[in-house]
Design a protein that fits this description.
The structure is a single chain. This protein is about 30% helix and about 25% strand. It is of the alpha+beta class. Strands 7-6-8-16-17 form a 5-stranded antiparallel beta sheet. A hairpin with a 2-residue loop joins strand 6 and strand 7 (about 170-175).
Amino acid sequence: MAKHETNPINTEDILNKYRAAGKIHQQIMKEAREKIKIGMNIYEYARSIDERIIELGGGSAFPINISFNDAAAHDTPLLNDPRIFGADVVKIDVGVHVDGYIADGAMTIDLSGKHAGLVKASEEALKAAIDTVRAGTTTLQIGAAVEETITSLGFKPVKNLMGHGLAQYTAHAEPSVPNIKSAGAGAELRAGDTIAIEPFATDGIGYVENGGIKEIYSQAKLKPTRIQFVRKVLDQICTYNGLPFAKRWLDSDKLDLALIQLERERIITSYPVLIEASGGMVSQAEHTVIVTENGCEVTTRD
């Protein structure tokens, strides 16, 4: 059985910060569900959530993902994005942190009114997965619960998307948490591990590919750059402490050039929008859980 190196929670202070992030996340998701309406501009929606996280005492652990229909993840608004919500299947994925300790959770809102079964598939898979979690559970057992639930409801899991561990200022840590039965050696969970479980269900083939849009980045390493305007952008990026950031959060009249240069130098990495390869609709559900000896604490669930 594979081991993972992410440290489990080892102090009450850290545990309380994970819980505080979870409380903020619960409130944000409640308001996000109430606020979304057909005809609303997605940039204004995202900006209001960014601001609300700060008002409630947290920080954004990553840019809000607002992914439509066959897009599974990593779609976030451009600055002054003109897009509006229509009769879409919308995935809302939000990360909140308190001193770097993260609550990560997602929901699917079916504004079309035509895909209730698909939404239910990811939600029920998440419930089934959470029910398996306790110290000693393997990530393979979680993946099996996800796949069995989704397929029993007539859909497919997205096999190349996974949940993940969480650590301070690290939104994607070990272990990876699969959404299918067969996924390598797996890892055994320990009391104090913090993981995000996020089933994706689809009526397509169950595989995502990179799309052509990328608006989310993260800093991959600390390295100086000689070009002055690029260095100014990098100074802004460093304030996010390695957490993912949105292009719209940065200010530069040469922003596109700066990002291209930073990516070329491998100082930053980008996260293209992920699209279901066959064009199938995708739903997502996600919670953050802290593993205990006899179960788990779900920080993002009210």
